[in-house]
Structures are given as C-alpha cells and as structure tokens.
C-alpha cells in the first residue's frame, strides 16, 4: 500500500488514521446542515468560523464536508494532490451546469479548456469589449438622467442583462436583452432551491431556464459561425491551444452558459455595491472623481487609460473584499487520507473553502469590517500572503480562479469613469441591510436621487 504524505510532511498512514477529525457538527440526520446553509450561506460560514476555527466539519447535500478558511487553509484546499473537483459538487449544481463545465473539472482537461477560455480575457480582448461597455453605459445613463429617482439594483439588473448579452452573443441593449436577465435570474435561483424537479417549483423552473439558455446559445453559435463577431463568443470560437485543439460546440455552449450567468450576477452585484460605496463615502468619491478628471476626463476609454486609474482599482478590489459577494468556492472531493493542522481529512469526503470569510481574517486585513481602499495600494497588495485575496477563487490563472476576474475590474472602472465624469447621486431613505440571496444586495434595492454633477 502506498503511504501518503500529508501537509505537514509526516509520512505514516497510521499516524493520519489516529488523528482526530476537525471540530464541527453533522447537524440533523440525513439533511445535515444543508437547510442552515441554504437559509443564509454567508452567516453559515461566519458563525462556524467563530465557533470552530478555520477548519471544521459539517454535513451538506448528503455527505460529510471539511471547510477551509484563511490563506493557509485555502492554499491547502487548492492542492490537487489531495483534492479534486471531479464528482466533488452536489448533483443539483452539476445538473444546472449541464454536467460538464470548468467548475466541475480537474486535471489536464481542465487546464486545456481553461487556457482556451482565458484567450477571451486578455488585455487585448478587453480593448475590443470596452466600446461595448461604453455603449451600454451611455444607453442606461441617459435613461437614469431622465428618471431622476429610481431603484438602482433593478436598473443594474437590466443594464447587466443587456451588457452580458452584448459581450457574449453580440446583442444590442434594450428590452429584448433585458428579458434574458429575467430568465437568468430564474436559473440562478435554482442553485439555492430545494433540489427536487417538480417542473413548477424553483428548481424545476431553473432547469427549464437552463435549457432555454442552452438553446439560445446554440442559435448564437450558429450565427457566429456564419458571421464572425469580435465578442466573447467570437473569440472563443477562434481560440486554439498550443496543440491546435479547440472547444467543441457542446463544450462551448456549456462554458458560455457558466460564464454568462457568472458575468450577469457578478456585474449587477458589483456595480450596485460600487454605487452604494461611493454614495456612503463622499471622500472616496471625491478622490476617485479627481483621478478620473486627471487621467480620463473625456474621450473613449481603453486599457491604457484604465491602467492609470490606480486609486479606482483599489476601490474595486476593496469592494470585492469588503462585501459578502461570494461565500465559498465550488466543492471538491478529498482524493486521499491526509492531514491538516493535526486534523484528519478523510478520503472521499467533500471539501470547500470560504471566500468572504478568508478575506475578513484580521490577521491579514486589519480592521476587516472597515472599508479602506488604501489597503490595496500596490506596495501593500504585493505583500499579501498567497490566497488571502480570493474574491473569485485563488491559485494560478489556469487553475480554479474565475476567468472573468479581470473583466469585473475593467467594467467597474469603465462605469465609474462614466458616472464620475458627469453625474452625482444621493441615497434616499431606505433599509440598507443586505438580504440573504446567494449574492446579497441591499434589501430595498438601493434607492437613489440621480443628477448632473456640479463642482
């Protein structure tokens, strides 16, 4: 029998077997702690971190799971010697993603496919997408200027449905694109619904929405093959690996489905939080506006201009660290008995790493509950421990980090520039507590009074 080495370098299998399991609770028979997770996913991880520490056991979706929180634990979780994404995720997640997409893969096939997809998320590719972002921004800014007062979350949902539709399948902004957002919302709700397909319930509706979106993408792929376009789908159709390999049509439709819904939800949540942050911190808004006036006061944007907006980038990073956006990674499976911090990690168990909780560890981020963009000044960002800033996952680019991570930064900068060049806004009376959605946002949707900026 081969003896497995563990994280701390010991090499006796019997020694691992004699180690205790991490602290934690398996919850109720059969259902474990799944209901508590579904009720409030962010509180689930925060409360158990406080009670048990950075590694604990639980029982989710029918199997025992080890949770890892903090930079060191997150790094251990990413070690493919011990963990694999293959068959690691609950059946409902795999079914919603149509069984075959990057979050569900590992090994050489994952790396091959990831490298192809990353070709659509380079600085050169972003220069092709920025005009699309600006066109969508102009369309909705004109609308908001006329409205004067509105609920921004609703407006950002419409805008980001249009933007995702434009970036991924080449559609124009407007009501047709906004309708795709409603289908996307139904699909996303399936990830936190009771995983029983009754057709008319939340999970059943999510599966129908998945099928509609896949058919929609099939039509878009056929159109792009007839008439190539310079959007994300067009780049992915043309992507070639070093060995000449490409994405098959089945792989392409599933990967674009995954990227499409991740972009849509990531876009509208991040933009809502950007607008909330600038309204709540007038000193941050003033400094950001000054930077925009200095480096991007007018004219079309490109990557060269955006890269000069250093303070604005610090704001975008702190938004993704500070707010409870992503609670955890996708799930993995333990490949072999191993050890972490003198705890036994059994083969065959599930595993997951906390994202938001990792970025709120006071040992790394002082005063983690304070919003401080300065913590991401280039010299400070460079000294952060590995896998301490993990808003879209950690590790190498061709690993399990979200391929669209840099695109979120670009979009936030583009939208901030267009807002700060001309507009100002103030919060209206409302409840600013966050809801318990998979991607939490202010309960009242961020009600604002919007108008022209006057120095």
The CATH superfamily bears the name Cytochrome P450
Q: How many E strands?
A: 10
Q: Label the CATH architecture.
A: Orthogonal Bundle
CATH class assignment: Mainly Alpha
Placed side by side, the strands forming the largest sheet appear as: 1-2-8-5-3
Mean pLDDT: 92
Molecular structure report:
The chain has 455 residues and is α+β, with helices and mostly antiparallel strands. The protein has a single domain (13-452), classed as Cytochrome P450 (Cytochrome p450, Orthogonal Bundle), CATH 1.10.630. Helices cover 49% and strands 9% of the residues. The chain has a 5-stranded mixed β-sheet. It has a 3-stranded antiparallel β-sheet with strand order 4-10-9. Strands 6-7 form a two-stranded antiparallel sheet.
Summarize the structure.
The chain is of the alpha+beta class. The protein has helices at 13-17, 34-39, 41-52, 71-77, 91-96, 107-118, 123-147, 152-169, 175-189, 202-226, 232-238, 249-280, 282-295, 303-306, 310-322, 378-381, 405-422, and strands at 55-60, 63-68, 83-84, 149-151, 332-334, 338-340, 343-345, 350-353, 423-427, 447-452.
């Amino acid at each position: 029998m081969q003896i497995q080495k563990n994280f701390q370098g010991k090499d006796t299998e019997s020694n691992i077997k004699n180690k205790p399991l991490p602290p934690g609770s398996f919850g109720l028979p059969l259902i474990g702690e799944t209901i508590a997770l579904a009720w409030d996913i962010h509180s689930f991880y925060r409360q158990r971190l406080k009670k048990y520490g950075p590694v604990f056991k639980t029982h989710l979706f029918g199997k025992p799971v080890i949770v890892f929180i903090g930079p060191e634990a997150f790094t251990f979780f990413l070690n493919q010697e011990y963990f694999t994404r293959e068959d690691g995720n609950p059946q409902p997640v795999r079914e919603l993603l149509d069984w075959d997409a990057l979050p569900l893969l590992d090994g050489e096939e994952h790396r091959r496919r990831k490298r192809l997809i990353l070709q659509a998320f380079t600085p050169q590719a972003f220069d092709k997408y920025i005009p699309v972002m600006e066109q969508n921004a102009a369309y909705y800014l004109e609308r908001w200027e006329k409205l004067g007062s509105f609920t921004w979350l609703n407006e950002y949902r419409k805008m980001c449905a249009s933007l995702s539709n434009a970036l991924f399948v080449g559609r124009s902004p407007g009501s047709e694109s906004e309708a795709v957002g409603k289908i996307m919302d139904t699909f996303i709700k399936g990830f936190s619904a009771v995983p029983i397909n009754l057709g008319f319930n939340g999970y059943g509706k999510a599966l129908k929405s998945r099928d509609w979106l896949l058919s929609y993408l099939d039509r878009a792929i056929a159109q792009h093959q007839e008439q190539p376009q310079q959007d994300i789908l067009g780049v992915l159709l043309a992507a070639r690996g070093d060995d000449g390999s490409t994405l098959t049509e089945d792989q392409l439709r599933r990967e674009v489905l995954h990227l499409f819904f991740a972009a849509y939800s990531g876009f509208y949540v991040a933009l809502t939080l950007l607008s909330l942050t600038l309204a709540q911190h007038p000193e941050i808004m003033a400094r950001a506006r000054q930077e925009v006036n200095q480096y991007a006061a007018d004219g079309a944007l490109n990557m060269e201009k955006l890269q000069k907006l250093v303070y604005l980038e610090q704001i975008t990073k702190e938004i993704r660290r500070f707010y409870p956006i992503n609670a955890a990674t996708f799930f993995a499976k333990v490949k072999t008995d191993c050890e972490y911090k003198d705890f036994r990690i059994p083969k065959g168990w599930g595993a997951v790493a906390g994202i938001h909780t990792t970025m709120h560890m006071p040992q790394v981020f002082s005063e983690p509950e304070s919003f401080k963009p300065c913590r991401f000044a280039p010299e400070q960002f460079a000294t952060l421990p590995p896998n301490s800033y993990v808003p879209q996952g950690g590790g190498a680019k061709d690993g399990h980090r979200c391929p669209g991570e840099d695109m979120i930064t670009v979009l936030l900068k583009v939208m901030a520039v267009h807002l700060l060049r001309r507009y100002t806004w103030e919060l209206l009376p409302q409840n600013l507590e966050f809801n318990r959605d998979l991607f939490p946002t202010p309960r009242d949707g961020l009600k604002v009074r919007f108008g022209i900026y006057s120095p």
